[in-house]
Amino acid sequence: MAVLSFMLRLWREAEGGAISPDGLSVSWGGFAAGFHSTERCSPLSPVCCKEVRPSRHCHRSATLRTLRTLSTSFLALAGLFLSLPAPAAESQVVTSERDTASLVTDTDRIEAGHPFKAGLLLHLKPGWHTYWKNPGDAGEPVNLTVTLSGNLSGKADAIEWPAPERLPEGPLMSYGYTGDALLPVTVTPQTADTQSQTVTISAHADWLVCAAVCVPEQGDFHLDLPMGAATPSAQAPLFRHAAEQQPRPSPFQTTITPDGLLTVRGDGLSSQAVKQAWVIPDEAGRIDQVAPQPLTVDQGQMTLRLKPEEGFNGGKSFAGLLELRDAANEKSVLSFSATPVAAAVPHAPETGWLALVAFAFLGGLILNLMPCVFPVLAMKALAILRLHEDRKHFQSGLAYTAGVLAMFGLLGAVMLVVRHAGLSAGWGFQFQSPVFVAGICWFLFAVGLGQLGLFELPVISAGQSILTRHRGLSGDFLTGLLAVLVATPCTAPFMGAAIAGALAAPPLAALGIFLAMGLGLASPYLALTLVPNAGRFLPRPGRWMDTFRQILAFPIFATCVWLIWVLAQEGGGNPVAIGCAGLLALGFSGWLMTLSRTVSSRRASPVMFAAVLIALSPAALLLLLPSSSEMSAHSLSANADTATAFSPERLASLRKDGKPVFVDMTAAWCITCLVNDHVALESSVVQKAFAQNGIVFMKGDWTNRDASITTFLHDHGRDGVPLYVYYPAHAEGRILPQVLTPDMVVQAVEGK
């Protein structure tokens, strides 16, 4: 080629021109008087762009003219040589209206035992894209198989994926490539038992290209290359460029918590080095890929808050790409694999601690008016009646308050420990367990039987001690414990913000918020005990109190009926049968206890012993109840048949289509939810407003644990149900109060 270039220079100079230093500009002698022209062109191109300019001199060299004949002959021979076929490093091209595709290699020859690169070369037309190995919320990854035949054999490894682009599409996120893309693979040739002097590279590829529509495409490619020492092909620079686009292994230590907090630690991380960051997961379905990923950068550390989805699996390592941009907007892409760790202690909430304490107190105070506390009204009523005769009524109030605070503190501590372990727990979480529901149902049934005076057994003495004047302060303390335990299915106004703030605060501050909530619940009774001579304003004790006590047993039985219904919603017929069997055992135990009073003292002891054993027998039935993970919730209300089941994907799809959506997060054990359903959501005026405005009613059932609903609650600052969010068409969601009225819902959906 050097000789060819030299002869070309001589030939052009022989024409009477001067050659510029770059070898591409030649001044040609012209016959037009006083002018010559300048051409800038490629030595091998017949097309030149001429610029005409004045000239003073024009001459020819006789010697160079002599060489012209020799150079012309040499060029003719060189042209003949170059016209001979040469090995190509690119296959035939598959063409469509959307793109072109071919198979290319980085070498012109193949040698046994020496790996080489092959790849699918795509030229995508503007507006079209194809997909990475994790296509995101939609799409399919490119599939490429490459094999060798002929004098060598072999098969390609997996695609060495260049870093993809993020391709947001409304509420969805995709990862892929636009423009020109080379997807390389490595092939290691092995000697085959043939005498062929060529190697045939065969490939099959499937890929999906999308714009406004998606079109699946495929191609079969063949490329023959000779044997010999490998030499770089004309396409080798494409492979070098693709290698530069490969993500680099991350030098940083990376961990992730079960709630999606990705932490990256290492030298070089700073607010200047990391201005923007984004995680691209290797697998779809583990995180919400379109949700914001809030970034926090400190010296030597950065965190990204990811939004887990149902397939997240906090105990499994999390791999993907970390896309970083520095202060100069330079991008770097790192591949990482994050080690799972326990959840870190969250940062303190933005709302001040004193404000959260105030919310908690108000929420606990309003909780006294919620229907969940009906089961303990009998106990509280009898305790108030005792104020007439008990001069130490202030001590009674303190004991009741201590019980309430102890149970609130215990529930708060359990929720914090569960959260720290990386599991999900919200207000009323214990009612998601059929074992707890059955156990509290049997306990309340035993208390109701005690109200009726059927028995007083040691195993249920806690329940009876609450209801008898002879147990003193211990009864008041147990009343406070039980009041909190059965009140948790309800969520009063202000409680949602307080609980969410508590779970995001340091442990001691969080316990203070829970205790403030308990103080609010206990404050009315405590305040009544502080009134001097409060007993003078109450009816005097008498036989009527026994009748009153028996009447108050029936609200407790009504609660038992509701708890059996909750069991039916959580697990269907089997848990209901087990729950009823326990009630039957307790009822039979009560009858035996009554019978023991009518027989002689010699026979009474065996009968009472049998009564105790039978009363204990429901504990064995708890082993037969299913776990939370084995349960499937059923419909919760009359409008469940017309409701759309909640899923993040379905909600995103409806919002993308411009549909207004009303989201109802509920649970069978949430009495506030059921009251809101009956009073507001199922009312004719609300149903009419939904129909007239084309609103999709979406219901999320949190009766049993559901990771996607838990995440949705956390995203909206809640840790329990109910939660009501209305999404107008093409607008952000609006959270409604926890206690609804029909007018409140109608005004929200009509934008008033």
Describe this structure in words.
The protein is α+β, with helices and mostly antiparallel strands and 752 residues long. Helices cover 38% and strands 22% of the residues. Strands 16, 17, 18, 19, 20, 21, 22 and 23 form an eight-stranded mixed sheet that branches. A five-stranded antiparallel sheet has the order 13-9-8-14-15, with no helix packed on it. Strand 10 and strand 11 form a beta hairpin. Helix 6 packs across helix 9 (473-487), helix 7 runs antiparallel to helix 13 (553-571) and helix 7 packs parallel to helix 14. The model is unreliable at 1-87, 344-350, 457-470 and 629-640 (pLDDT under 50).
Features:
elongated, 8-stranded mixed sheet, 21 helices, alpha+beta, 5-stranded antiparallel sheet, 752 residues, disordered N terminus, single chain
* Beta-strand segment tally: 28
Helix content percent band = 25-40%
Poorly predicted spans: 1-87, 344-350, 457-470, 629-640
Please state the CA-atom Rg, rounded to the nearest Å: 40 Å
In terms of DSSP E residues, the strand content is 15-25%
Biggest β-sheet strands, sense, barrel:
8 strands, mixed
Instruction: Please state the average pLDDT score.
Output: 76
Structural class: alpha+beta
Question: What gross morphology would you assign?
Answer: elongated
Give the N-to-C terminal Cα separation: 81 Å
What is the overall number of helices? 21
